[in-house]
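Marked as duplicate of an earlier ticket. Keeping the data here for the record.
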Amino acid sequence: MNSTHSKIIAKIEKFEQLCHVLEFHKHNKSMLIPILQQVQEIYKYLPEDVLNFIATSLDIPSAKVFGVATFYTHFTLKPKGKYIIKVCNGTACHVKDSLPILDKMRTVLALKEKQNTTEDMMFSIETVSCLGACGLAPVVVVNEQVYSCMSPEKAEKLLESIIRNECEVKQ
């Protein structure tokens, strides 16, 4: 099976999942936010064509769907990487030097100034104002896995470990 065929199958599977989400919520307009949450779990972001499909399926204006998707910071309209890294910069983490951790991770991932996702779509990095783990500061979360008492050196080793594991999986 070639990569084009695999990509088509993946798109079909995601579209089927989208339809299941809409069916699960019985195409109920009042369930827009839970629908968007589940759809974002499937796609890792909210593609424009998917938002338009949701609007049509729920019989509501696209502007309303886009309005909800852009109002809440939880939602994103931009594709994210396979590994979503959240670096806490809340008070406790900031005081314990979370910004050098962020800088080190951006350097290791070769991210340019306004770039948050690597070109290979492997990593996305974002700062958050609080992860609710102040006693473990500074904290980094990678795909819901919490890493406490981080330092720039530990962050670099963490990224190297993820990259190494990815290379092993591909072989």
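See parent ticket for discussion. The mean pLDDT is 93.
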